[in-house]
Amino acid sequence: MSRPPLQTPEPRAGRWCRLLAVMVFTAALSGCAGMVNRPPPLTVEQVVQMAKDGTPATEIIKEIDRTRTVLALNGSQYGRLKQDGVPDEVLDHLQNRYLRAVEFDARMRYQNMYWGGGWGWGWGPPYPYRPYAGHFPYWYW
Q1: Does residue 93 form part of some domain?
Q2: What mean pLDDT do residues 125-133 have?
Q3: Long-range contacts of 77-81 (CB under 8 A, 24+ apart)
Q4: Distance CA 113, CA 130 (A)
Q5: Are 60 and 92 in contact (CB under 8 A)?
Q6: Which of these, 94, 95, 90, 98, lies nearest to 56 by C-alpha position?
Q7: From CA 79, how far away is CA 129, in angstroms rounded?
Q8: What is the spatial distance between Cα 99 and Cα 93, in angstroms, rounded to a whole number?
Q9: pTM value?
Q10: Alpha helices, DSSP H only, in 68-135?
Q11: Looking at the 3D structure of the chain, how many domains does it have?
């Protein structure tokens, strides 16, 4: 009986290179998933024009939400919008969206999720009830 020829195992470097290539390809494809064509946010003039055109407040609010519009307005600008005929519901919605955006930004900064989480990997402790007490992650304590 003759034995089949022995197959030499593939070198480890070849397997690692192939694994690395698959990981890079997967990362590149997942990056493409985030490229969404979003509509540009509304301007103050567009909100006023929609109100002057007689668009109902609910439709203006839906458009603000669809375009993810956040306007940082001061009190006098809210007064001018009211004089220009923008409904109270829209003004309240604009103010609430701005307050939620500021709150979200402060939460991200407080939890250190913008700059690496303190350990160098881009995600910080979600609920830092205790002061940071060492090199272990927050959930260790």
Answers
A1: yes
A2: 47
A3: 77/44, 81/44, 81/47, 81/48
A4: 17
A5: no
A6: 90
A7: 41
A8: 10
A9: 0.58
A10: 75-83, 88-110
A11: 1
Residue type, 33: A
pLDDT of residue 132 exceeding 50, the answer is no
Whether 137 is in a domain gets the answer no
Q: Which of 21, 71, 24 is nearest to 45 (CA)?
A: 71
Structural domain contains residue 36? no
Scan for tokens 């260790």, then name that residue.
Answer: 140
What is the rounded distance in angstroms from the CA atom of residue 56 to the CA atom of residue 66? 16
First vs last Cα of the chain: how many Å apart?
Answer: 65
For residue 141 the two structure tokens come to: 């304590």
Residues 83-124 pLDDT 10s: 999 999 999 999 999 999 888 887 776 665 555 544 544 444
Domain that residue 75 falls in: 44-110
Greater pLDDT, 36 or 27: 27
Residue for token digits 């969206």?
97
Task: Classify residue 19: in a domain, yes or no.
Answer: no
* Distance in angstroms (rounded) separating the CA atoms of residues 34 and 29: 9
